[in-house]
Design a protein that fits this description.
Length: 460
Amino acid sequence: MTRIVGVQTNNKNRANDYVHGVYELVKKRNPDEKEFLQAIREIFDSLRPIFSKHPEFITNGILERITEPERIITFRVAWEDDQGKVHVNRGFRVQFNSDLGPYKGGIRFHPSVNSSIMKFLAFEQIFKNALTGQPIGAGKGGSDFDPKGKSEREIMRFTQSFVTELSKYIGPDVDVPAGDIGVGKREIGYMFGQYNRLKGGYEAGVFTGKDPNHGGSLGRKEATGYGTVYFVDEMLKGEGKSFEGVTVVVSGSGNVSTYAMEKAIQLGAKVVACSDSGGYIYDENGIDIEMVKQLKEYDNKRIWEYTKAYPHAKYHENCSDIWSIPCDIALPCATQNELDEIAAHLLIANGVKAIGEGANMPCTQEAMTLFHENGVLFAPGKAANAGGVAVSAMEMSQNSMRLSWTVEEVDEKLQHVMKNIYSSCLSAAESFGHPGNLVIGANIAGFLKVANAMVAHGIN
Ligand SMILES: NC(=O)C1=CN([C@@H]2O[C@H](COP(=O)(O)OP(=O)(O)OC[C@H]3O[C@@H](n4cnc5c(N)ncnc54)[C@H](O)[C@@H]3O)[C@@H](O)[C@H]2O)C=CC1
Ligand SMILES: O=C(O)CCC(=O)C(=O)O
């Protein structure tokens, strides 16, 4: 008995030393990349229990390899504005891991884009894409270009210049980009057009998130937001709860937020607030989702203009104060680290029951710890928002087969994927000694899938 306990302790120490040692190496190699290190730390904290059961992951150097992107492409994007002035932005594509399939992940256009943000997003994508169960590897890209205030033609010229360089590194079986912040079906359309022009043909599966009228999948636009709500609904059902009659606050008013709000409302919730980077609106009667769509998806307006149609609604300029509104469920769907310790304290004091991360890494580590300590149900982004990339993989399948599924078919498959992800997270958490902890469950379930493939593919 003593000997077995001794062996277990030795294995545990060896596993802890391994995780700690690799984290120190990664930190040394990427000293100023705070978002990337934050994402690595969260994963590493969850993975500790794995290595005492799977020493082969240590001998195969899985952590050392999975934290180093297979390839990072950085390039100049020169473009001319409407006045003929030349501008230069920086473009990125991080091709992080291809053990499960072609690199797959969105393109972000936002002034904050830098190497750390690109790497954290591509790293998260490894585990998220693995959780979907579909044959997709992981990547992410973007540029520090700010679409705000640019004309339609400027956006087209910038996007064409961006993809002229990116086209050398992507393809339907190599790397398949999609949208993210600042990139929707309009930008994907420009990328797709320019890519095909350069290649002299039509390669349907090179981008996803295309317009369903020209090569895209029905249901892709809605998939991330709907998927997030489907996942949270599963988590609520596990506790005998539901969306019926609850109050919900959603940050952002872009692609993910809009369709998270729509699905929550369809399931009987009252959504009382949403935001953009300028501020938030609070409508105690419940947000009119069609009005939000009109303002943000079609008219490209700021969210405060909602109050022109609904004068009883209130507009507040500080978008991060949205978390001071009492709610049962909070869905952060805007951007990374938008919900910090202070916001978490406010939500908990106001009785929040559940959090669902529609955005990538929207909660800081400190906020997550507080939710955990206070028994708040927590759906981590890499599981909860995986519906978008899952339907992107369905778009790839439809493109390869040269056919189109109906929106009902796509939605049914999406619900199935989200349920499967939920049960994989639950069972991984249970098997590794953390029952009910979906953060640990998501990280372990995603990691195991990729790590096993990396062992099978040899050291490379
Ligand atoms: N589009 C997709 O399919 C997926 C997106 N995500 C993640 O979801 C998040 C949102 O992405 P999208 O909706 O696609 O982008 P989007 O560009 O359509 O919308 C982003 C929204 O967030 C707002 N925003 C930006 N910074 C903000 C801040 N600090 N506070 C409040 N609002 C702010 C913007 O005004 C905009 O309304 C990102 O973290 C993205 O990586 C995750 C999975 C898939
Ligand atoms: O649909 C895709 O390929 C990308 C989605 C994405 O960027 C994400 O899941 O964060």
